[in-house]
Fold:
Amino acid sequence: MIRIYNTLSKKKEDFIPLEEGKVRMYVCGPTVYNFIHIGNARPMIVFDTVRRYLEHKGYEVNFVSNFTDVDDKIIKKANEEGVSAEEISQRYIAECKKDMEGMNIMPATTHPLATQEIDGMIDMISELIDKGDAYAVNGTVYFRTRQFKDYGKLSHKNLDDLQAGNRSLLVSGEDEKEDPLDFVLWKPKKEGEPYWKSPWGDGRPGWHIECSVMSKKYLGEQIDIHGGGEDLIFPHHENEIAQSESCSGKEFARYWMHNAFLNIDNRKMSKSLGNFFTVREISEKYDLQVLRFFMLNAHYRSPLNFSAELMESSKNALERIQTAVDNLKFLAEHASTQEMTPEEAAKAEEAVKYEKAFDDSMDDDFNTADAIAAIFDLVKFANTTADEKSSKAYAETLCEKIQGLCDIMGLITEKKEELLDEDIEKLIEERQAARKAKNFARADEIRAELLEKGIVLEDTREGVKWKRA
Ligand SMILES: [Zn+2]
Structure:
């Protein structure tokens, strides 16, 4: 039985889906105005792993994750570059998908775009107005927060505390609200911004309504799991609940899962502190499998600290698994006997305990840290029980077991051929040395080798420069 820590109840609960054998899961996706940063990568990796594990357990998972492609930040970036907001969002959706592929994140069943779902948003807002849960003032539509009696149930906040905190936050332009707690469902257009027609005038939707609408359209009124970063609990997820449950009169999501923060060198990641990394920047130094492995080494509800040393140790640890897999493949290929001996069969049976330990850890609120420890125990078992005398079947069995567990984690056990920056620099140094020694044949060979892998060299007065083609 899988147990999930539910932010709603603050407890681990048995996972029982609405429909037997099926899981409906929604995870809030990124706002696409730039390359995704490593903070964005954490929920992507975490919930991709949750999905993979649920699939391993035999569930059919309908996984929906949106792209927010209309937003102030996108519009700002578009204005800075003098291009349309659509051009910005399309560009960074494509880049995000490249990063996801590098991190071995499976595409969602559906990746809806907010701008393609405006009709549904207008319908839901109209329904909320009809029910008296929302109201329009001069082109802006607000949700009547106090009307929803369960407001605060996810973030465990009470309305009066919120009211006290909110009074000072009352900003100009929103003074037409009936109550400071009310939040925006639709806002009127501003000059130079994308807009859509609506019964309340030209404008665009608020952010919270997007997820309620896309979740309903692709998964139905009720879903099993809703996920996201813990920074989304309030107000975003609280507002999603208020909108969706006011409309349907039913519980919106059964289990709310939130991953904890990611810090850099023990400090909050921020551009002003200069400790802000995009996934693309990390990919220039490391195979993104290392980033995935690093993130899964912590439980998703624990804060995670990112540092160069931790990435280095993750790289080494991942290599230990990959080396064990390589070794077992080599042994299987060169084995002198085919079938397992009775002793080997007993050992193979013994190794099942590591698979069981892996599943037990994952069943316990997706404890990936303990699950990885189980993989290492299996690796150690393989390294000590398989050798040149082993049968092909035994080496293969152990190899399949390790690979099977890594697959569930989304970890690729084959060593990548792709060249990393430091390898490229080394080859360039070697080429320079070859040229100095007048070994032009070797120098040309290195240039050709790099070119084959998509690296273009350019000899300049300042030295050799290189770029990825
Ligand atoms: Zn959302």
